[in-house]
Design a protein that fits this description.
Layout lengths: L4 E2 L7 H13 L2 E6 L5 E5 L14 H5 L5 H14 L3 E8 L5 E12 L5 E10 L1 H29 L4 E5 L5 E4 L1 H7 L3 H4 L11 H17 L3 E9 L3 E13 L5 E10 L1 H37 L13
Parallel strand pairs: 1-5
Antiparallel strand pairs: 2-3, 2-6, 4-5, 5-6, 7-8, 7-11, 9-10, 10-11
């Protein structure tokens, strides 16, 4: 019943009585309120709320959660003003002292002159749903907190951090990787290796590595060069790791890559330096050995001797 219900002051009609019986059978709480909601005339709820069979003006502080009382008052005032159905979800104080939630609706009962006589309402216990919603919201908040923490860490490291879907497309790429590609998130995420600038041989190599990880759950490590959007071609060391669900299946592949171009350049310079020093040390050593050999040839046989150089 969505609109006002007309009733005689001397009693209710048979159809309304049947309606009330149906509501009582299908609701957790059934109640009757005075025309201005100042007093509750009847409340039946079993063990859910404190029942009453006579008018009571203490229903608001007794049953409604303090933080929701003003919201309930505002909804009541609006329903009275417009003589329309009152409908609201709010918290209540249960008989056992715990917190509960109800979805409450009440229709205005009018006399033949259209004047408010009382309100007939019913409420359903929605505590399990609200608790589930709260648990889901807490889980979302925790997940968002972890995501913010993860994003803070990954966006402030020079290392490249990324996640592959099993179809070889990128599920995630941190700021450093996006900068290397010279792309935005929307331009790169959901795209495959070729679409993000990898040469065919390079893309093929990583795709086969992903296949290997899915089949074996092994970690793969390698070294490869790639053109940076602003720094030119660089050398990278990378590690690809399986992401495994509770059923032991690989659901994605996570990767971290570090620019080792400077390390490689230092190793090359070190090698060049060692080669140069070795050459310079060997040259005077060879010359000295030759000089001794020549000098010995000019000496009498009895005065010749051998020199050994380390």
């Amino acid at each position: 019943m969505k609109g006002p219900v007309a009733a005689e002051t001397q009693g209710i009609s048979d159809s309304e009585a049947r309606y009330r019986a149906l509501v009582a059978a299908t609701s957790d709480v059934v109640y009757r309120m005075g025309a201005d909601w100042s007093d509750i005339r009847e409340l039946g709820s079993g063990d859910y709320l404190s029942d009453t069979k006579r008018p009571s003006r203490n229903w608001m502080p007794q049953d409604i959660h303090p933080l929701d009382q003003q919201m309930v008052k505002d909804a009541i005032n609006e329903a009275i003003r417009d003589k329309k159905t009152y409908a609201l979800e709010h918290r209540i104080m249960l008989t056992n002292g715990s917190l509960g939630w109800i979805s409450s609706k009440a229709v205005p009962i009018l006399n033949q002159q259209g004047e408010l006589m009382e309100w007939f309402g019913a409420a359903t216990d929605i505590t399990p749903r609200k608790r589930m919603e709260q648990a889901l919201q807490e889980a979302r908040d925790e997940a968002q907190q972890h995501e913010r923490l993860y994003e803070t860490i990954t966006s402030n490291t020079p290392d490249l951090i990324y996640v592959f879907n099993l179809d070889y497309t990128f599920h995630y790429a941190n700021t450093a990787l996006l900068n290397m590609w010279g792309k935005t998130w929307d331009e790169a995420i959901g795209k495959n290796l070729l679409a993000n600038g990898y040469e065919p041989w390079h893309a093929e190599m990583h795709e086969r590595e992903i296949d290997h990880i899915v089949a074996t759950k092994e970690v793969v490590r390698g070294e490869v060069s790639f053109p940076h959007a602003t720094l030119g071609r660089r050398v990278y060391d990378y590690i690809l790791t399986p992401v495994i669900n509770a059923q032991g299946q690989v659901v994605s592949v996570a990767g971290t890559t570090r620019d080792i171009s400077d390390i490689k350049e230092n190793e090359r310079r070190k090698g060049d330096f060692i080669s140069m020093v070795s050459h310079e040390l060997k040259t005077p050593l060879t010359s000295a050995t030759s000089y001794v050999q020549v000098a010995q040839k000019g000496l009498p046989k009895g005065r010749q001797h051998h020199c050994r150089y380390a």
